[in-house]
Amino acid sequence: MKSLVLHIILCLSLLTSSISFSQTIEVCDSCSTTTLKNAIAKANPFDTISIKKGTYKEYGIKVDKPLTIIGEDYPVIDGELKGEVITVISDNVTIDGLFVINVGTSYTEDYAAIRVRKSKHFVIQNVVLEKLFFGIYIEKSSYGKLYHNKIIGDAKEEYNSGNGIQLWYSNHIEIEHNYVEHVRDGIYLEFSDDCLIKNNVSAENLRYGLHFMFSNNDIYQDNTFENNGAGVAVMFSKKIKMYNNIFKENWGTASYGMLLKEINDAEIIGNTFEENTIGINIEGSNRILYKHNNFKKNGWAVKVRGACYTNRFIENNFLYNSFDIAYNSKINDNVFDRNYWSNYTGYDLDKDGIGDVPYRPVKLFSYIVNRTPETIILLRSLFIDIIDFSEKVSPVFTPDNLLDHNPQTKKVTW
Amino acid sequence: MFKILKYSFFDLMRSRWSYVYFAFYLLLGIVLLFLNNDLSKAVITLMNVIIVLVPLIGTIFGVMYYYNSREFTELLLAQPLKRPSIFLGQYLGVALSLSMSLILGLGIPFIFYGLLKSNAIWDFSLLLITGAFLTFIFTALAFNIAMSNENKIKGFGYAILLWLFLAIIYDGLFLMTLIMFEDYPLDKVSLIGTMLNPIDLSRTLILLKLDISALLGYTGAVFKQFFGTSFGLIISFIMLILWVILPVLRILFKSKRKDF
């Protein structure tokens, strides 16, 4: 007990001492410090730099001390297209309320509006980035937080544009409430584990709204991915949890609500896939649980490309998709159970809410379209309905054990 | 011509068949909405019905009307009237009354269900427009068949065969061709194949609204231009209008030189 009290007193005294010693440096046109660079050079560790409203034409700003940099009324830091704007190389840095524009474009170096390199415990919040190459680039750093940032790019081509938020070899990062649009990849994670991506909006990006590579144990939830060039790609990662996200209107020949490639042991729960060309495209992904998802008005709700084993689709709603499930092989090792299929035509005589006839989600026509894509033009033709029916009665081309034995007669609610 | 149109129209309006037809659509609309509880799903089901049934009813009804009113036609021919105006009047009378039954029969339940407030209204109006087009096309085709065949049984046979061919067999042949020649670029062929069949054409028109996300999954540039822009919609409508005009022209041509 005594030691605890001592500990608390010690902590408090440390805290107060650091507050009493830290000072605030003001930056404005008429202040003694007129540039952010000078302010950083003058500052002691744990000082606060307060930047007043105005335009500051600076680039290559290095934050090498633990500082808190706060902008008042969004001061503009103009990089004049010359290079990287802010680089953080110290731990415990907070950047708050800046408006960074005109980041330089380079084909040899990834210039970012704000880069964090080999640091810990950083916070970047309320930052607005425009006219950028890379937005926020987190490199070999950990335990950071990115909150409430707004990144608006003007990317036109994939080869000369950068990503909104990029994480590279960075662990334990929290990315929340950010808004990213018109860049190459909205949010990009590579070799980054244990990150939380929550409540973000990523829209109208050239390539992917969210892009995962070799990143394990991450959670992304409550995000919205809309109208991106190719949707969301999750590749070569393990144990990812995807909860309650919305994937919307990703249209195009190589466009997916979500692309899963070499993903193992993931959980996909409570997501909504609406009006995508392909809701989820699965390739080489095993032991994934799909539960309580809504697939609505997609071209293909789920397209299984092969090498996918022991995945479970349980209690999902498949509503008005042109094709519910597409398979390109005759072998099936995945489980479909207790889903609601709007195309189900069976009956429920004992009224227990479960259809008495199993539902066969793969149609012959989806097999034909897979072989000869032009035949898509015959979608919903009477002839196609007839051959689909005959295939349903005696499956020849589609996996005959691919059945939902307990199709729900009412939409699943949770 | 308008007098004959008016006469045919009101004659049909009084006839039992129009009411049956009207009642059928009314019932269909109500049952669909009652069972589905969802407008967009009802629209999809309705599309299947319209594409198959409207042509069938149009053909049968057209042939039937032509054969039934034969005596009246002969009476009219004895009068100082232009031949094209007699036949055109009759044709328009049948087609208009059928389209009216369709539009009113389906429109009334949907409007009561709250269509005007929902966002399915454009899909639904497109459905009704294509339905009306199909009625006009297949009635015209039916008149052509009936005019070329004095024998009623033969005429009915041909009419049903025509419907069977365009609704089902054509798609089967089409699918076989596409699969057989799958090694070649087929996007143009498939689009042209669609244009040559009014049922496929109207199906595609509705697909543009309902399944656009699936249609954009195919990589062909021609497809992309056709489905991705309003180009497809415009071309489809032009083709539908052509599909009405050509059979009607043949009715006029045939009526000028037909012996009675």
Measure the end-to-end span of chain A.
48 Å
Radius of gyration of chain A: 26 Å
- What number of domains of chain B? 1
Give the chain pair forming the largest contact, with residue counts: A-B, 33 and 42 residues
The biggest sheet of chain A amounts to: 14 strands, parallel
The top-level CATH class of chain A is Mainly Beta
Query: What is the helix fraction of residues of chain A, given as a range?
Result: 10-25%
Mean pLDDT score of chain B: 85
List keywords for this structure.
heterodimer; A: 414 residues; mainly beta; Pectate Lyase C-like; 13-stranded parallel sheet; 39 strands; 35% strand; B: 260 residues; mainly alpha; 0% strand; globular
Describe the fold and architecture.
The complex is a heterodimer of chains A (414) and B (260). With 414 residues, chain A is mainly β. Chain A is built from four helices and 39 strands. In chain A, the strands form three sheets. Chain A has a 14-stranded parallel sheet with strand order 1-2-5-8-11-14-17-20-23-26-29-32-35-38, with helices on one face. A 13-stranded parallel sheet of chain A has the order 3-6-9-12-15-18-21-24-27-30-33-36-39, with no helix packed on it. The longest helix of chain A is centred in the N-terminal third of the chain and has 20 residues, at 2-21. In chain A, 44% of the residues are buried. With 260 residues, chain B is mostly helical. In chain B, 85% of the residues lie in helices and 0% in strands. Chains A and B meet through helix 4 of A and helix 3, helix 7, helix 8, helix 9 and helix 10 of B.
